[in-house]
Amino acid sequence: MSAAAAASLLKDASLLKTKSYVNGEWVEAKSGKQFTVENIDPATGEEVAKCPEFDAQDTELAINAANDAFQSFRKVSPQERSRLLRRWYDLMVENAEDIAKIITLENGKALTDARGETTYAANFFKWFSEEAPRIYGDVIQPSAPNCRVVTVREPIGVCGLIAPWNFPAAMITRKVGPALAAGCTVVVKAPTETPLTALALAELAHRAGIPKGVVNVITAFDNTPLVGKVLTTNPIVKKVSFTGSTPVGKILMNQSSSTLKKLSFELGGNAPFIVFEDADLDTAVQHLIGCKFRVAGQTCVCANRIFVHSSIYEEFVKRVVDVVKTFQVGNGLDSKTTHGPLIHSRAVAKVDEHVQDAISKGARLLHGGKRLPLGPNFYDLTVLADVTPEMQVFREETFGPVAAFFKFDTEEEVVALANDADVGLAGYFFSKDNSRCWRVAEALQVGMVGVNVGAISDVAIPFGGVKESGFGREGSKYGVDEYLTTKMIMTGI
């Protein structure tokens, strides 16, 4: 699909930007180098656009622009910051269908999923527009009776935000929203695979009247590690927020130590999904399907290890297979498509490796388990039964459309299996026993627990994990805290 053809799908073709956005202007890299957006379109593999290949110098210019803007933006009233975010939200709502189509064009997800993401993404701007005027300090009585203490919350400064490709709109708005609410300025490193969504958001920021330099969106492909290093080592940048893999998070954390930046990292997951013998099976099946196969399993909180009590195991697995058989994999823009392609061929290779490893070690293949002849990035929705902890799908996050079922007999056994992971982002379980619900929720070593629910993402929740899934929280009332510092002021009276 050509750039012209892609633009023709949009009501407002001017949203399809191919330059980086720095200091309120659309710019090329100083070197003039560009990279081809390799995943446009994941369903066809055809090129739609080229974007600037930013290097260290380009990145430093964006940081300097953000720093210049911070000197004035930090003094903008919370009410005005709220108004700006609300205007950005309104523009996202007005252009929601075009944003969704851009997401599908470069990410591949079904258009229905892209529409849902667009709404979710916009709501972060709405939420944090309402949080901006509610950043409070405290009054404290110190031990000295002739003194008084107050605390004030101040914006931390320039923030480097590094976003992933699987939710190319929502993972940006979830970071930018609280940063601007706090009074910070940002340099957003657009996802290598999905830069056009990020640039469309920048265009709407421009239209919303966000002051120049407050929001900067930069692109790179081969230079991505170099850009990340500049963001993590430049002393002007006071905060880095990263969503991505645990190995990359460790690299960025090590680099950030050189200037002791404030960090919030949302890293890999390996979510357990537990179905106890007393669960409502219809409800559990419904929620598992959404939790496991949303965006073809390419979410950090999707069910990766599905544990089902032995007494209901066969019946539950059969019900899941019956539902999976009704789905249609195809081009995300096709109205009949329920699930689109994976992001690229490397993702397909990893999924197939996990499937073949499980089968070779005794797992039963009940559905799928193969590449589809629709294109290089398509893999069939797959169901594996009788999976064991010796298989890769237990130890590693698959990040693809594979439902791997494990059998268990006791609560103690399944909690131990669920916690047998280096990461701890999300976990889910289904049971009608109220005592068990509290007991297991507290026992699971994860940052977020879904009890009788498989969809936990919401602007109002504190999103984040424990162990090697990272630290810090995004969204909710806690999200703004990540972009603030607390200053104590003591006065004598």
UniProtKB/TrEMBL annotation:
Coiled-coil region list: none
UniProt keyword list: Oxidoreductase
Single annotated GO MF: aldehyde dehydrogenase [NAD(P)+] activity
InterPro entries given in the database record: Ald_DH/histidinol_DH (IPR016161), Ald_DH_C (IPR016163), Ald_DH_CS_GLU (IPR029510), Ald_DH_N (IPR016162), Aldehyde_DH_dom (IPR015590), Aldehyde_DH_Superfamily (IPR050740), Succ_semiAld_DH (IPR010102)
Reaction(s) catalysed by this chain's protein: succinate semialdehyde + NAD(+) + H2O = succinate + NADH + 2 H(+); succinate semialdehyde + NADP(+) + H2O = succinate + NADPH + 2 H(+)
EC number: 1.2.1.16
GO CC terms: cytoplasm
Residue ranges of domain Aldehyde dehydrogenase in the record: 26-489
Pfam families linked: Aldedh
Active site: 266
Family membership noted in the UniProt record: Belongs to the aldehyde dehydrogenase family.
Name of the protein this chain belongs to: Succinate-semialdehyde dehydrogenase
Species, as recorded: Hypocrea atroviridis (strain ATCC 20476 / IMI 206040) (Trichoderma atroviride)
